[in-house]
């Protein structure tokens, strides 16, 4: 199965743990790659795609280990996705180097309302010049806001804000406010806007299957649930 940066980050985080990480549903036997219940494993369905755009996930603490995390779905479809553990005071040098690389147009994905006065805000990615590098702050909404406020090494980058204007399909975590979407949904929208349509379709299909199988593996799941409970971004 294809290796990627999120899987490596998860392995590193587990190796540093001083006690077992117990997520919701921790008694369920899970595939150690996709983190879904063994009967719902979707690893054999993975179909990586090519894209001009590139993603970088900055993940909050235990986020790589959570079965409900959708940022890792991006790395499933785009294996060149980078992933780093967030640190306020000691950011990985590789993250700083990537964010300042002359090979990409780097931008932080976050709602425009949180950008400071004078900071450049984009609503669509550039379609010419260097490929876009979408830096996504992956965590709960509270964690993502903290990362956005306390990552000075990203402050010089423009913010790109995406208005999906749809009801989120994500039902795995509780939304804190209207208009919040999970990481994979926002990434698919960015790919579509950047004209990486094949990758956008691949990620959307992967996310849809992940959501269906995740919910199917939950105890007392009802297929008629319609309430949207997005993650962040």
Automatic annotation (TrEMBL):
Q: Does the keyword Transferase apply?
A: yes
For this UniProt record, the keywords arranged alphabetically read as follows:
S-adenosyl-L-methionine, Transferase, tRNA processing
Start and end residues of each DTW domain: 27-219
Name a biological process GO annotation: tRNA processing
EC assignment: 2.5.1.25
Q: Answer yes or no on keyword Protein transport.
A: no
Q: Name one GO molecular function term.
A: tRNA-uridine aminocarboxypropyltransferase activity
PANTHER family the record matches: TRNA-URIDINE AMINOCARBOXYPROPYLTRANSFERASE, TRNA-URIDINE AMINOCARBOXYPROPYLTRANSFERASE 2
Write down what this protein is called.
Answer: tRNA-uridine aminocarboxypropyltransferase
Q: What is the source species?
A: Buttiauxella warmboldiae
């Amino acid at each position: 199965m294809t290796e990627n940066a999120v899987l490596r980050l998860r392995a590193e985080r587990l190796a540093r743990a001083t006690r077992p990480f117990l997520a919701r549903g921790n008694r369920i036997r899970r595939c150690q790659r996709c983190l879904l219940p063994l009967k719902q494993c979707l690893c054999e369905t993975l179909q990586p795609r090519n894209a001009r755009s590139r993603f970088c996930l900055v993940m909050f603490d235990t986020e790589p280990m959570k079965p409900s995390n959708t940022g890792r779905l991006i790395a499933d479809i785009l294996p060149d996705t980078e992933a780093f553990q967030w640190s306020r005071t000691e950011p990985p040098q590789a993250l700083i180097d990537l964010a300042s690389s002359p090979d990409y147009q780097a931008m932080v994905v976050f709602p425009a309302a949180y950008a400071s006065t004078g900071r450049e805000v984009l609503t669509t990615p550039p379609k010419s010049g260097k490929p876009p590098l979408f830096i996504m702050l992956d965590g709960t909404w509270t964690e993502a806001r903290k990362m956005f406020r306390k990552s000075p090494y990203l402050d010089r980058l423009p913010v790109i804000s995406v208005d999906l204007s749809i009801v989120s399909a994500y039902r795995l975590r509780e939304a804190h406010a209207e208009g919040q979407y999970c990481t994979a949904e926002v990434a698919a929208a960015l790919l579509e806007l950047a004209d990486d349509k094949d990758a956008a379709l691949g990620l959307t299909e992967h996310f849809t299957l992940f959501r269906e199988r995740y919910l199917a593996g939950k105890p007392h799941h009802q297929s008629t649930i319609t309430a949207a409970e997005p993650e962040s971004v």
